[in-house]
Amino acid sequence: MIKVDYLTRGRVAVVAFQSPPVNSLGFTLRQGLLAALERAEQDTAIDSVVLMGSNTTFSAGADIREFGSAEMLRGPSLATLNTCLEGMSKPVVAAIEGMALGGGLELALSCHHRVALASAKIGLPEVKLGLLPGAGGTQRLPRLIGIEAAINVMLAGEPLAVGLFAKSSLFDQVVEADLLAAASSVAEASAAAVKSGKPLPQARDLKVREPDLQALCQFARNTAKTALKEYPAPLAIIDAVQFGVEKSFDAGLLEERRLFEQLMNSPVSKALRHVFFAERAASRIDGLPADTKPREIRQVAVIGAGTMGTGITINFLNAGISVRLLEVGKEVLDRGVARIREVYEGQLKKGKLDAAKLAARMDLLQPVLEYPAIADVDLVIEAVFEEMSVKEKVFRTLDATIKRGAILATNTSTLDVDQIAAFTARPQDVIGLHFFSPANVMRLLEVVRGAKTAPDVLATAMMLAKKIKKTAVVSGVCDGFIGNRMIHRYSAQAMQMVDEGASPEQVDRAVEKFGFAMGPFRMGDLAGNDIGWLIRKRKYAEGSLVERQVIADKICELGRFGQKTGAGWYDYKKGDRTAYPSPVVAGVIDEARKAAGRPLRKLDDREIVDRLVYALVNEGARILEEKIAQRTSDIDVVYLMGYGFPVWRGGPIHYAESQTLYEVARRMRAFAALPGADAEFWQPAALIDKLAAEVRSFNGGAA
Ligand code: T1G
């Protein structure tokens, strides 16, 4: 709970505050801090103040949940609190442990002195939220550590070890222990200095010397522009710093406030703040009993030493968890082990890993050739061929071999997890862990809960995801779960637009201009067009995909699987990953169009982007209606983490809300009316129509 304690140590008031879990500076805490500081100012028994977090951390900054709400405007604002603090007649010492980030660091910068534990970290991460430090940080930090260092801290946005600044005016002391004692003696010494007539040290009074401010700021701008062209915050940070140095501290504060408000209301910052909470919400499982205890996982087995199996294995080795890698063929197994070693040796060359760590990780790897060798593991993850008959064989063998209580996970990307669970006598221990290729790189993990998956198995999967640094999203069972089910619609629209008259390169260019890392055709060439082909053939056979994708099938029949075969939707040159438009593909497209006899038309970029993105939104809405996804933000997390949706647009659902659901539904109906359109698909999902009619957003708030 939020509280501010007022304690005394001799003639030093210790103001110890907390607002768990990270002491974010919401209205109640700001109000409590101001009251305590005003009390100290009046307290004749007190000559100085120590300000500290009372739960082993200082503060992670302003309460981001307040942004855009009235709470944020309820006085005292953080800027007001800092100005009052800095203007006190008695010295205030910030005692920093744990983290002082964002507004938390700005609070400390407004104190007259700062003492930190050597283990503490400080930073101004506002830039990651599309913001700039809005409570004096752009003005006080340059005066304490210099302009260039301050700009670097603000543009990086990373937590930094306090030791980096031990020699600057930022800290009076950096201590290994006894933080309160050290801070109290700094407070007493400062009070004595005040008594002897010395002025209180204030960051605002420090002079900044920069021989060539223009050149420095211009260099910083050029660097910021190339790195983050869609993000306005870095340039605003540089502008605020330069303004305050050229004009005055107070003028700088006003400019900082003006720019902060501009950024706060920008679509990019709203998207980045949405992503911040969306990533964290994904780890919560609605309806899971609070006392659900995860199972202990000491030993893991991975079945299949192919690309996925070795990638999955690396995640666990990196987390210090031993893995038995099982492959029935010795040659394939040896190749798999060699691939794992290759990955680590690549990191060693880049200095991302040292030799000792490489050896330690490889020591955790035990290649095995038979199932009995994995009988006593706690978790098995199969990453074998994506064919139900193969999965059946593996799971029947696992059921007969693996100890009771072990978790049996499938890495399937689209197959029915309930059907796989039914191959065993223990469906409650079966779960889907869908990694994304390359499995040791992509942060997304779809955790697919079967109808009979036990709660503790689900909780164990979420706990493990955190341990192997994955962002896990829970999905129900359906064809393609969340991500691949939506990408199927997205790819179908891309193909249809090629049928209608667009070229693959036009579709890719349009959606890459929108911000996707890679358009659908370049992505197909990277991932392998044969993967989609295999799924389409299964669906043709099952009858669940009636409309054949003639052009895509023909491309695959020609063996044009993409970069791995040197040709796909594009042509490639040896050793060159550049995608060159292909005359062969253009010929295939022309032939298919002639055979279809459909009239061609010109499509503009807006239609291309809207049809691709709104296809994701419509299928995402249906996934929500069917409760396959727990919440709308989970759908955004899947697309941001697994499919290269531009982060600064917040994800497909967040982006749709920013265009208003009324407009999205209107565009969908227009697409339904296009000649040859999949009119049934383009009927807006009932949820979209409902929310649009009630002018509400997906997460229930006012749109
Ligand atoms: N406001 C509100 N909630 C926050 C928060 C914040 N600043 N920081 C964390 N949380 C919540 C988070 O949502 C989660 O909640 C829980 O705390 C644990 O977080 C004026 C305007 C501090 C490094 O950008 O980087 O100050 O999911 O899971 O991995 O200039 O949290 O449990 O319900 O991330 O140990 C600037 C953001 C704000 C820091 C800890 N500060 N936070 O990481 O835990 S803007 C930031 C972090 C500002 C001023 C400006 C990390 C962390 P729940 P967690 P963690």
Which whole number gives the mean pLDDT? 94
Calculate Rg over CA atoms. Answer: 29 Å
Ligands in the structure? (2S,3S)-3-hydroxy-2-methylbutanoyl-COA
The biggest sheet amounts to: 8 strands, mixed
Tally the beta strands: 19
Distance between the termini: 31 Å
Percent helix range: 40-55%
Binned strand content = 5-15%
List keywords for this structure.
3 domains, six-stranded mixed sheet, binds (2S,3S)-3-hydroxy-2-methylbutanoyl-COA, N-(1-d-carboxylethyl)-l-norvaline Dehydrogenase, domain 2, eight-stranded mixed sheet, 703 residues, Rossmann fold, 2-enoyl-CoA Hydratase, Chain A, domain 1, single chain, alpha/beta
Any overview of this molecule?
The chain has 703 residues and is α/β, with parallel strands linked by helices. A hairpin with a 2-residue loop joins strand 18 (570-573) and strand 19 (576-581). Helix 4 (103-110) packs across helix 5 (137-145) and helix 11 crosses helix 25. The chain is globular, with a radius of gyration of 29 Å. The chain starts with a strand and ends in a 10-residue tail after the last helix. The protein binds (2S,3S)-3-hydroxy-2-methylbutanoyl-COA. The site of (2S,3S)-3-hydroxy-2-methylbutanoyl-COA (T1G) has 25 residues, from strand 5, helix 4 and helix 11. (2S,3S)-3-hydroxy-2-methylbutanoyl-COA is lined by residues 21-22, 24, 60-65, 78, 99, 101-103, 106, 125-126, 129, 131, 133-135, 137, 277, 280.
